[in-house]
């Protein structure tokens, strides 16, 4: 193949003509006035090991240990932001981490008071994700952060802090409250997966630079996990993969990370999740089972998988931690 043929086959799509729309005219499926609040009646979740996990979380914090909270975007979309903020304010969560969609929904709630569009209809005409404020502001914040050497989570929070008039609902923004409380909030982005990547202003190099800072911060927290807890809520790929790599780095550098507790929360029922299975079984390819529950605890500690909706498991965990004698708001 000559160079002209190769060039013809390697064309790039020009994003400059992409049309965006204001998010202020959008109908949102999640709103700040419908967020769930600690203290409301809870349909308690019960599953073997769940109460012991709550005890281990409380014990870890009494000893000054790490409690790292990893999540997918549906924790925010289920209206549970105030539970996360309460767990941070109460001194339980020591590090909060998530994927790009977590940051986007949290950011939108902060400026718009709502988030989550109706994707099935929006994808039909190409309007899905084309929200001017979300794309322009988040990409601007990330690019500023990359130049300043900030992580992605820190960059978004600093952007909000510098423009309070744009973000009237930041009291319910998880990443902003983490920043105010001095708790690391890191995001780990798969390029091309988030709606802000669709916008002409997106700079993947800036995202990569900010995410490298966040990854190293996450690795530092994981390196201090001896006697601590790692919990993952609904992230099936990013959370488990990032955790396993960070754990390998920590152990490679000689940090003690074997007396640890891990827990995965999802809707998927794995049955006996500690039983050895081969690559002929579909659950073998379910990342949280391997990367969170089993492999990290092969030389000590304990791992669990809990099956249930976030709307039940997270409020129940919050209440159980309170019952174990740990004061929460």
Summarize this structure briefly.
With 329 residues, the chain is α/β, with parallel strands linked by helices.
Can you walk through the features of this model?
It contains 13 helices and 8 strands. The protein is α/β, with parallel strands linked by helices and 329 residues long. The mean pLDDT is 96. The radius of gyration is 20 Å and the shape is globular.
Q: How helical, in percent, are the residues?
A: 40-55%
Task: Count the DSSP helices.
Answer: 13
Unreliable stretches, pLDDT < 50, 5 or more residues? none
Overall spatial form: globular
Secondary-structure element pattern, one letter each: HEHEHHEHEHHHHEHEHEHEH
Strand order across the largest sheet:
5-3-2-6-7-8
Mean pLDDT: 96
* Main sheet record: 6 strands, parallel
How far from one another are the termini?
A: 66 Å
How much β-strand is present in the residues? 5-15%
Provide key terms for this protein.
single chain, 329 residues, six-stranded parallel β-sheet, 8 strands, 10% strand, globular
What is the topological layout?
Elements lengths: L2 H7 L20 E2 L18 H13 L4 E5 L2 H4 L3 H9 L5 E4 L1 H13 L1 E2 L3 H4 L9 H17 L3 H11 L11 H8 L3 E3 L16 H20 L5 E5 L4 H15 L8 E6 L20 H8 L7 E6 L2 H14 L6
Parallel strand pairs: 2-3, 2-6, 3-5, 6-7, 7-8
Antiparallel strand pairs: 1-4
Helix pairs in contact: 2-13, 4-9, 7-8, 7-10, 8-9, 10-11, 11-12
